Predict the structure.
Amino acid sequence: MYEHLKTEERGNVAILTISAPKSLNALNSKILNEMGDYLDHFDSQKYRCLIITGDGEKSFVAGADISEMAGLDEGQGEAFGKRGAAVFRKLETLPVPVIAAVNGFALGGGCELAMACDIRICSDNAKFGQPEVGLGIIPGFSGTVRLARLVGMGMAKQLIYTGKAIRADEALRIGLVNAVYTQAELMDKAIEMATQIAAQAPLAVRAAKECINAEYDMTADEAIAYENHAFGRCFATEDQKGGMKAFLEKGKYEFQGR
Ligand code: CO8
């Protein structure tokens, strides 16, 4: 159905693979549109977690497509940035958690894509960076927004001003990724984590994602009140009743998402 996206499922875990191997999975308008369409139609009732990865063993996503950007004027540049940022925001606000399984280069728009996901894990050959200033532009798919939030202002400024890429071990050290695996292990580990997430009460996982995202921009008092409401709403679910009853009776309960 898509030219540059491969989709699969493992039970209630969805896997999306970005596939444009000739350009190391660089994001052009076509791929961004396909990703937007995929996310618009994503079935958050059926799937409880999404994994995103790149095709091949060399690259997650090597950035936005430089050949497409080269001839843009000011207005077109802004429009291209807006298009990518809107797709990544859809990903960030997808009701279910998203894991980036970074299997190689995550440069420019590729690093920004990974940062729009909830959780990042990578293979030991992965490289992360924001090389845009070396091309006369800045990170335009919300990298100046998300990198500082993830790794702190000082490290974000260093990475963005120098354009220098870092290896997986450094990405782990600064907290840009949560874990590093061999290339062979990476997808199994991503699926294992996704399956663990998918086994939890889905409405509770969603509420947790919604809270963590929304509360980031609030004052402490607003954030605490927001969490209070979300916590209360959990008690209106069948899964809370079933899950707690099963615990007390030392039984098992399959979460229903109700
Ligand atoms: N765009 C277009 N084509 C690319 C890109 C890219 N980002 N990355 C790689 N390719 C292509 C290469 O041109 C090459 O094509 P061809 O075979 O036709 O020559 C093919 O992929 C293979 O690449 P290499 O031969 O260069 O492979 P190497 O292993 O030697 O190097 C690298 C791999 C290091 C990843 C290298 O390809 C590279 O440096 N790529 C560019 C990385 C980069 O600068 N990314 C950031 C781009 S800017 C960006 O993402 C901005 C996001 C915000 C946009 C805002 C819009 C306004």
About this structure: The pocket of octanoyl-coenzyme A is lined by residues 23-24, 26, 62-67, 69, 77, 80-81, 84, 105, 107-109, 131-132, 135, 139-141 (CB under 6 Å). The beta strands are 5-10, 13-18, 49-54, 59-61, 98-102, 105-107, 119-123, 127-129, 166-167, 179-181.
